[in-house]
Amino acid sequence: QMFIEDAMKSEIVKAQKELYVNILTGEQFASDLFNVLSVIPPDITSRLIGGITLPVTKRNTLQKLGAFETPVSVVLYPKDFKSKQKVLDYLDAWNEGKSDEDRVIYIDLASTITGLLDGVLSASTIVLLSFAMISLAVSLIMIGIITYISVTERTKEIGILRALGARKIDVARVFNAENFIIGAFSGIFGVFIASLLILPVNSIIERMTGLPDVAYLNPLFALGLAAASVILTILGGLIPAKMAARKDPVEALRSE
């Protein structure tokens, strides 16, 4: 109410009331909004909301300057999210049990924008997860191929091990142990590189946004990533390791 009273008493509103042109642009006013509509053909009038701009009227200009006793809308700017929630709770309590005419219709722009951002982030996360799953599938296939090539190249070595008394499970353990070492080294190396990249990434983000220490590698996540690397490497080499264990010792010794 104080804002409306101050607007009504402002010099620009007083000057605008005395003039029949827009005090800001010098544009001539239409005499009345209804007179404007009456001279527009019906087929055009029906499409006014679709993008046709009506001529400026004195009433509309005064309304934009705040000189309007019945406000169409009120914009609130809470100081923080806690205050915003209090405003929303108050409006919800006011609307409870009220008829449609007495309800206060409000739009929470912060929640709307946050919802849009959440949607974008969720979509981005799904896309990144899809790429990650594809990468994991390709990695498993490549590990299997590399292990199979190793088995093929060491067929005679497998025959010698079997001739010396090694069991099938012992031969499989040899290749599984090699895959374990490769997976552990790869996981530790990847975590090490990620740790090194955190410093320059944080420096760039802080320089651009002013937010310090945005990127952070949780030690538990680092251990989990290293363990996942080991598990995936072993899984990728299981089938070739079983193929090596099932090779006939005599045929293996004859191979070159």
UniProtKB/TrEMBL annotation:
Q: Work out whether the entry's keyword set contains Transmembrane.
A: yes
For this UniProt record, give its keywords in alphabetical order, as a comma-separated list: ATP-binding, Cell membrane, Membrane, Nucleotide-binding, Transmembrane, Transmembrane helix
Membrane topology for this entry? Multi-pass membrane protein
Entry keyword Cell membrane = yes
Stored InterPro entries: ABC3_permease_C (IPR003838), Macrolide_Exporter_MacB (IPR050250)
Q: Where are the transmembrane segments?
A: 126-151, 180-200, 220-239
- Highest taxon of source: Bacteria
Q: List, in alphabetical order, the Gene Ontology terms for molecular function in this entry.
A: ATP binding; transmembrane transporter activity
- Annotated Pfam families: FtsX
Q: Which residues form the ABC3 transporter permease C-terminal domain?
A: 130-249
Cellular component terms per the entry's GO annotation = plasma membrane
* Compartments where found: Cell membrane
Q: Which family does it belong to?
A: Belongs to the ABC-4 integral membrane protein family.
Q: What is this protein called?
A: Sulfate ABC transporter ATP-binding protein
Q: Which organism is it from?
A: Mesotoga infera
